[in-house]
Amino acid sequence: MPNNVVVLGTQWGDEGKGKVADLLTAKAGVVVRSQGGNNAGHTLVVGDKKVVVRLVPSGILHSSCQCLIGSGVVVSPEALFTEIEELKQAGFTDAESRIKVSGACAMLLPIHPAIDRGAEKKRGKNAIGTTGRGIGPCYEDKVARRGVRIGDLFDMKRFEERLKSLLDYRNFMLKNYYDEPEVSFESVMENVMRYRERLLAMVTDVSDVIAKARAVGTKVLFEGAQGTFLDIDYGTYPYVTSSNTVAGGCCTGSGAGPLHIDYVLGIAKAYTTRVGGGPFPTELTDEIGKGICTRGKEFGAVTGRPRRAGWYDAVAMRRAVTINSLSGIALMKLDVLDGMDEVKICTAYKLPNGAITELPPLAADDYAMVTPVYETMPGWKESTFGITEFDKLPVNARNYVRRLEELAGVKIAILSTGPERDQTIYIEDPFA
């Protein structure tokens, strides 16, 4: 019986991971975030409540669940405690007491959004489309070994020394390269000290908590952020995020051993979307694409930016299956395709030289040059919204789902037919 399950996105993010993580957390005692920052928004709908979590794991809605933020996450103290206050206002008054943070997390400071915005402005028409929240610059400082970590707050002399060094470097860039105002040491210290005591009270050894949970058979859910094709190594570089969003990142960003992962559940929409710049082979810029966006309410949970929509990309999914070693797929928003005369699936790419490939390229420049090869299937006029049994779906909807499963070579374990918890078809329980 699987005790440790990974939930991650298999497309360009925004696949509906929040709902699935929330559903599975009902069976888990621990849920872990292992990468990303407050640029990742998961929307959870419970009855008449709609909650957006960004840094906090989705398991926070379950009172019996312990929520961990692993060392692979970059943490803005201000964003974290703003989110905790939002949760308290939504009725989750014990949120802060159930969240623990690794002391090895890189700390996202006010200097980082300033650098992020300056860099995007400098790129001009080549802007990546970041959220502007400073995630990339914070990861950059972490890798360059000039950043500060949450654990540094235990020794304020050391923290101040490292902060001064970081600000010297970053302010030089802001002033002389980005032509932006500098961020003062005093303003950053004021921001940090506002949250220091509360933050230190949450620090724990995340790897040890996971190991002890596994030892006693407690189920652990690893909640990914963003999606496979935003991975810094395997995504459409440079139009990617700054962390490893694939299954391996859940291990390095939490301290769990790779052999301790029992099941990897990949989340995919029944179509495809992405936010920001970068190649998108199946993108629909016509009325069909607009209709999908409207029915699917395709706007970013954090930024509110409209998403780009297109047909389901089975070529990209093949890559996602391989590099994540998927055990199963959760297919989301099937109901958005209701009422269409036909639906299309991208089954291959045509290269500029006319060759056909069933695997995607690794470079964004090459990705932008491919032409999708489509397979067309009949649509369905009947509603799938809220259906909870697979056999009650319209026959054409069932055929579509089975074809996606066949193309991926991986079973579809969960099928979502609406935003609510109970608007779900369970075919296989990842924890069973």
UniProtKB/TrEMBL annotation:
The keyword Magnesium applies. It is found in: Cytoplasm. Pfam families: Adenylsucc_synt. Pathway: Purine metabolism; AMP biosynthesis via de novo pathway; AMP from IMP: step 1/2. Keywords: Cytoplasm, GTP-binding, Ligase, Magnesium, Metal-binding, Nucleotide-binding, Purine biosynthesis. InterPro entries: Adenylosuccin_syn_GTP-bd, Adenylosuccin_syn_Lys_AS, Adenylosuccinate_synth_dom1, Adenylosuccinate_synth_dom2, Adenylosuccinate_synth_dom3, Adenylosuccinate_synthetase, P-loop_NTPase. GO terms for biological process: 'de novo' AMP biosynthetic process; IMP metabolic process. The keyword Transcription does not apply. Homodimer. This is Adenylosuccinate synthetase.
